[in-house]
Design a protein that fits this description.
Blueprint lengths: L4 E2 L2 E2 L14 H97 L1
Antiparallel strand pairs: 1-2
């Protein structure tokens, strides 16, 4: 950088402009080779990643199949439990109805006995 004198004060130094040379054919070919190397490395990396992803999906599918199988077993057992609960509800309903009818008969019989006892006492 050169200093420019302006009167008695020194002005800020001026930066020299850099003249960049035009890239040569050799420079362009070097850049293309570097790009090819980087693309080849990226392709290799992506192939490894692809294998890793495919393995992950295969493992996930196996696990999902296992979950589906267990869920099917749970649904079958739940269905059997529901049928059993419905059967028990029917049996209890029948038992309660029978108990109600028997209780009603017993109460009616007691009323008849009280009437007979009142009639015999008079």
């Amino acid at each position: 950088m050169e200093k420019v004198w302006r009167g008695t004060m020194i002005a800020m130094p001026r930066a020299k402009k850099k003249v960049e040379a035009e890239p040569t054919l050799h420079d362009v070919v070097d850049k293309l080779v570097q790009m090819d190397t980087k693309l080849t490395d990226m392709d290799t990396y992506m192939r490894g990643t692809d294998t890793y992803v495919r393995t992950g999906f295969a493992l996930m599918n196996e696990r999902m199949d296992g979950i589906d199988g267990r869920l099917g077993n749970v649904e079958r057992k739940l269905s059997k439990v529901e049928v059993t609960v419905l059967d028990i509800q029917d049996e209890l309903r029948i038992s309660f109805n029978a108990t109600d009818k028997d209780s009603e008969k017993i109460i009616n019989h007691e009323r008849r006995i009280r009437r007979l006892e009142k009639a015999a006492a008079t």
